[in-house]
Amino acid sequence: MSPNAKPSALLRILLLADSSRAAQRLEEALQALHEPCEVSPVTAWPALDLAWLGPEWDLVVVDAGRPEAEVLDLLTRLQALPSAPLCLVLSEHPAERFALAALQAGARDVTTPGLLLPVLRRELAALRGARAAAARLATLGAEAQAQAQFLATLLDALPNPVFWKDCQGTLLGCNRAFERLLGQPKSALLGRALAAVAPPGQTLIHLEQEAALFSSPPPQACTAQWPTGEGARKDLLCFRETLRDAQGLVTGLLGVLVDVTAQRDMVHELSERQALLDVITGNLVDLLALVDAHGKRLYTSPSYQAVLGYTETELADIPTTGLMDLDDQARVAAALETLFRDGHTLDLSYRLRHKDGSWRSFEAKAALVRTARGGTPQALFLARDVTLREQEATQRRHLEFHLRQSQ
Q1: Residue 34: DSSP 8-state
Q2: Which tens digit of pLDDT belongs to each residue from 196-250?
């Protein structure tokens, strides 16, 4: 049998014997077991070169027809192989001393021809079980390797930096996004403490928080600042969870980083815009109001209090048209309906009742405000108090009338 022999699904047995009688006994025992096996007899085995004997043999049966010293030497050489095969010694009348020495030399069992059948049944059943277990382990290993490769690919494809470390803070793994964040390859990061590889000034460690996390199972979220050079920095949101072993004991920590720098800049910009808007509306002389499609006021500028005398709380309890006289209410309601239907800017005039009971005249523009995400549109009213102008115009008309009468 050559070392390049193709492996078979059958159990392969190598018989080392000088006589055909041993081969016949082995064949008869296998036939009685109805066990399909491939038997390869080899003679002149004392001078056998075992270098070609590979792991493809499931069982080696040694016929002890030769001197005991040669059998023991063969067993010793077989056990010295990188993948030692399972060995049975077949002897007509094995002495107790020889059987003990053969077992010590690596034989699985020493049996007589009469007991060969039950011994083969036991050993072949064990071999098949071992082969099935090995195949199952190989399948599980391939599945585990494929799953590990999938998880590694998934982690590297994530845009967010991910890292995990043990309870002492030593980095155990990370993805490519984390490598890019630190500007170092994984080989230079793993096995080192995060505090040793992170740039000065970063606040990602949070050792006190991590200590609390190890003693308190719920996940944590914390903010961190990561310097990027020239005074600039990234704002990171770090989500952290404990890692546990099969017994549920905490073995480390997993962290996922989210870059929220753009959101920070957006919040700052919105805050600045809101501050500017507050200054504008706070010093606005005209009345500014936002009204929904049902005519409900959603916002009124502070100038309402200065011009009409009502507090914000009082205005909240008054309907939008509650300050208008009856003639203006119907006309403004119809104009509001037209605005939400057609979307065209409208010019309006109406009167509003001051808190002291007097009436003030206003000229207004009404425009439709559409939200960026397709939400419900709103109506913006910008009204100017023209009461004084109208009073002056009335006085001028009276003066002109009296002047004509005098003439």
Answers
A1: T
A2: 877 776 655 555 566 666 666 566 777 777 777 666 778 888 888 888 888 888 8
List CB contacts of 119: < 8 A, sequence separation 6 or more: 88, 109, 111
What single DSSP character describes residue 114? G
Tell me which residue of 40, 101, 39 sits closest to 68, measured CA to CA: 101
Q: Please say whether the beta carbons of 148 and 173 come within 8 A.
A: no
Give ∠ CA 154-156-158 in degrees, rounded to 5.
Answer: 70
* pLDDT value at residue 201: 62
Q: How far apart are the C-alpha atoms of 288 and 366, rounded to whole Å?
A: 10
Contact of 381 with 287, CB cutoff 8 Å: yes
Q: What is the SS3 assignment for 380? A: strand
362, 384 contact by CB (below 8 A): yes
CA pair distance 125, 132, nearest whole angstrom:
11
Structure tokens at 315: 């205005």
Q: Which runs of consecutive H residues, i.e. helices, occur in 227-325?
A: 261-282, 303-308, 312-316
Weakly modelled stretches of the chain, pLDDT under 50: 1-8
What's the pTM value of the predicted model, to 2 decimals?
A: 0.54
